[in-house]
Amino acid sequence: MTAPTASRATRPELLLNPRDYASAARTRLDRPVWDYIAGGSGDEVTLREDRAAYDRYRLRPRALVDVSRCDTATTLLGQPVAFPVGIAPMAYHQLVHPDGETATVRAAGTVGALTIASTFSSISLEEIAGAAAGPLWLQLYVMRHREVTASLVRRAEAAGYQALVVTVDTPRMARRERDLRNGFRLPPHIRPANLDEDHDPGLYQGSSGSSTLAAHAARHHDAAFTWDDLAWLRSLTDLPLVLKGVLTAEDARRAAGLGVAGLIVSTHGGRQLDGSVPALEALPEVVAAAGDRCDILVDGGVRRGTDVLKALALGARAVLVGRPVLWGLAVDGEAGATQVLSALREELEEAMALTGRPRLDAIAPDLLHRSAHLSPHLTDDDRELA
Ligand SMILES: Cc1cc2nc3c(=O)[nH]c(=O)nc-3n(C[C@H](O)[C@H](O)[C@H](O)COP(=O)(O)O)c2cc1C
Ligand SMILES: CC(C)CC(=O)C(=O)O
Fold first, then answer.
1. Which of 79, 257, 321, 357 is most exposed, with minimal Cβ within 10 Å?
2. Mind telling me the catalytic residues?
3. Is 220 in the pocket of ligand 2 (CB under 6 A)?
């Protein structure tokens, strides 16, 4: 895989995996944008632990299995996907590339992956749907003005979205100190395309010590939204509901009891409650509580095909990737995002072959050995890029 811009005159960069794309993206993005994407909340403990959780597991390969054909296809909420890796909802893809979410959703279509578009997409949800060739869900932040949320639901239905993902870990945005130091604000050419054009000019006017995105969330997100209000959302639509940001068996059971179709076990990529249990470690209790009634997905720190295998072995039906897709997009638009997703798919197939698990339904906890030690391979630089 090569990116179009050569790092040396004679030899183009060879970008093989998400971390390679991260290094390349870092040289291309302005520092505040890099920090907004890479960063987490507080001391970034959860950001690091989400990733480290994968490195505590070793794989137990089985030998002499026919792996001449490895089948990565599966279904999510009954819809076929080519492999169990989807794109996590992320705000404002145009921060890293002018084609924004249009490029990302096309990349997903090329490789047959699920896309979850964010409430805060920089391209409208209708345009995203117009460019989609694969399964497409819409992520919802429930807004204080309920009519804004109700209108997003109606528009999602009309545009053909197949599920709604309600993010439940962000009643307010956590303090992200990188953004505060940088005085992060949206560049003037980027807008929350699903909301009114002149929705909130405050997104563009900030100063050091504040993040306009955090201030915007404080003004608009409904921090009083509870389980009782989920019934209101349910009454608006027949689309399946998925909750994103569930980390406990208690919440998983409650959600399943209310007829929620899917759960995304997530720490929001270490960007919300710092010090929370890492997503991969929360996964088994969520699966035990609701895996018989809901499709369970997990995200946060997935960077290799073997990570996908580990999550599946712990009971996930699929994983989502966030930052890696933005790094691919930053480096080479649609082609870069496609290459990041393709690399994960190829690595997953390889890992299935080398562990002797040619079918996803053969992936179970016996694949894993939990070690007290982290794998030694991560350098400090890797950690920054993880
Ligand atoms: C730049 C950025 C923007 C994000 N925006 C949203 C969002 O709008 N809605 C949401 O539910 N999660 C959002 N997330 C969280 C992701 O959906 C996901 O949980 C997380 O990025 C997964 O971790 P990973 O980036 O390590 O793969 C965002 C994450 C990043 C990095
Ligand atoms: C605009 C923000 C609320 C998007 C988000 O969820 C994030 O930056 O993590």
1. 257
2. 268
3. no
Which residue would you say has higher pLDDT here, 377 or 219?
Answer: 219
Q: Is the CB of 317 under 6 A from ligand 2?
A: no
Identify the CATH number of the domain defined by range 18-385: 3.20.20.70
Mean pLDDT for the chain overall: 94
Percent of the chain with pLDDT over 70: 93
Tell me what pLDDT residue 383 has.
57
ipTM exceeds 0.95, yes or no: yes
Above 90 in pLDDT, residue 262?
yes
The number of the ligand 2 atom at minimal distance from the alpha carbon of 92 is 1
Residue extents of the structural domains in the chain: 18-385
Query: What are 56-94's pLDDT values in tens digits?
Result: 999 999 999 999 999 999 999 999 999 999 999 999 999
Contact 241 CB / ligand 1 (< 6 Å): no
- Three-state SS sequence of the chain: CECCCCCCCCCCCECCCHHHHHHHHHHHCCHHHHHHHHCCCCCCHHHHHHHHHHHCEEECCCCCCCCCCCECCEEECCEEECCCEEECCCCCHHHCCCCHHHHHHHHHHHHCCCEEECCCCCCCHHHHHHHCCCCEEEEECCECCHHHHHHHHHHHHHHCCCEEEEECCCCCCCCCHHHHHHCCCCCCCCCCCCCCCCCCHHHHCCCCCCCHHHHHHHHHECCCCCHHHHHHHHHHCCCCEEEEEECCHHHHHHHHHCCCCEEEECCCCCCCCCCCCCHHHHHHHHHHHHCCCCEEEEECCCCCHHHHHHHHHCCCCEEEECHHHHHHHHHHHHHHHHHHHHHHHHHHHHHHHHCCCCEHHHCCHHHEEECCCCCCCCCHHHHHHC
- The closest-lying atom of ligand 2 relative to the alpha carbon of residue 167 is 6
pTM to 2 decimal places: 0.95
Of 50, 176, 271, 298, best ligand 1 pocket probe by most atoms within 8 Å of the beta carbon:
271
